[in-house]
Amino acid sequence: MNLKKLNKEYDKLQSKYGSKELRSIYNGGCSKQPLILFVFMNPTARNVASFKEWKGIRAPWIGSKNIWKLFYELKLLDVNVYNEIMLRKGKEWDEQFADLVYNNVEKHKYFITNLGKCTQIDARPLPNQVFKKYLDLLYKEINLVKPKIIVTFGNQVSSIVLNENIQVSKCRQIAFKKKINDVEYNIYPTYYPVGNGMRNIDKTIIDLSIIIKNIKREKK
């Protein structure tokens, strides 16, 4: 199994749980032992890579702005790339610019994915049972990428990945150990930093800055 084969499985689930007019969004960044693997919820039509005419990479957050502020504040995105993202409207992203952004993600040694790859027209909530259809595939994805740590965003995603009731506000900067296919990972549940969660982005930046600083110190 490799990431490309996983993508075929994600496409099958798109036809069941996603919009018929859109394509599934996969993942992107450093796919070989990154420092961090970030797990978000699911993509929407605001991702311009979900349209059928798109020919480039189908990675999270293509065509968006707010999430890249988080990565920039965490020193995980170069200033020139960040400034260009802020200047562009969503539809002004093209395949070449998406490659440039994700090459920078790879440079900074992190990997971005969603628990659910089923693209929706809008940000309507998905029930737990849909996300759980993707869980085994996410575990395979994690074991193929082999990150140093995993960050899960939001109570719902964190609870499903860890298979326990998680309230992010009560476990800030705390690592939960999770064995996935005989490999133990440290998983950090974190506030969801976009949409309604934008009100918590400063807390997310504070928590992740400390977590990343500690992980980098351990590597020395």
List the keywords.
220 residues, alpha/beta, Uracil-DNA Glycosylase, subunit E, 6 strands, globular
Explain this structure.
This protein is α/β, with parallel strands linked by helices and 220 residues long. The protein has a single domain (3-219), classed as Uracil-DNA Glycosylase, subunit E (3-Layer(aba) Sandwich). Helices cover 40% and strands 14% of the residues. It is built from eight helices and six strands. Strand 5 and strand 6 form a beta hairpin. Helix 1 (3-17) runs antiparallel to helix 6. The longest helix has 19 residues, at 201-219. It is globular. The N and C termini lie far apart (32 Å). The mean pLDDT is 95.
In short:
The chain has 220 residues and is of the alpha/beta class. Helices cover 40% and strands 14% of the residues. The chain has a six-stranded mixed beta sheet.
Ordered list of secondary-structure elements with their pairings:
Elements: H1 3-17, E1 27-29, E2 36-40, H2 66-73, H3 79-87, H4 95-107, E3 110-114, H5 128-132, H6 135-145, E4 149-153, H7 155-162, E5 176-180, E6 183-190, H8 201-219
Parallel strand pairs: 2-3, 2-4, 4-6
Antiparallel strand pairs: 1-3, 5-6
Spatial order of strands in the largest sheet: 1-3-2-4-6-5
Element order, helices and strands?
HEEHHHEHHEHEEH
Count of alpha and pi helical runs: 8
Extract low-pLDDT stretches.
none
N- to C-terminal distance: 32 Å
